[in-house]
Write a structure and sequence with these properties.
There is one protein chain. By secondary structure, the chain is α+β, with helices and mostly antiparallel strands. It has a single domain (8-129), classed as Homing endonucleases (Endonuclease I-creI, Roll), CATH 3.10.28.10. The chain has five helices and four strands, in the order H-E-E-H-E-E-H-H-H. The protein has a four-stranded antiparallel β-sheet. Helix 3 runs antiparallel to helix 4 (94-107) and helix 4 runs antiparallel to helix 5 (117-129). The relative contact order is 0.14.
Length: 155
Amino acid sequence: MKQKMVSIEYLAGFIDGEGCLFISKKGKLYAPRIKIVNTNKRILLLIKNLMGGYISKWTPKNKRCKTIYDLEINDLNSIHDFLNKIKNHLIIKKPQAELLGRYVKSRLGRESKGYTKKEITMILKMQNLNKRGVAYRIGGGNGTNKQTGTNTRGT
């Protein structure tokens, strides 16, 4: 059976909706990561075959919940190539992709060395971009979008 290919536009949309671009900290090390979590293993395998990474499996304690699969890309070269392919097609996560791309480019060839002030600044900016919480308020008690004044109840 021939394996289906995923378009770059589809992949960018999938990352915008399901992906996470971040820099993790383990001890004194900061490592760039791209992570996609989904219950559809098949799509993650297609992405993995195209972009690299590894897939982990999570089995929920609640038997009514589906198994969760987690694709993570943490190799600098793979992340660099991945971002170069999708960054022009991203909408929501474009700022994270551009920042992560600059961070990876800065780290390539000097992975075992300390961090520059510029890299520390990028790490802090990424943390700020990925903060939890509402970026702006949508909706309210009266069903009106506070940004546009439009009805959010669908009536």
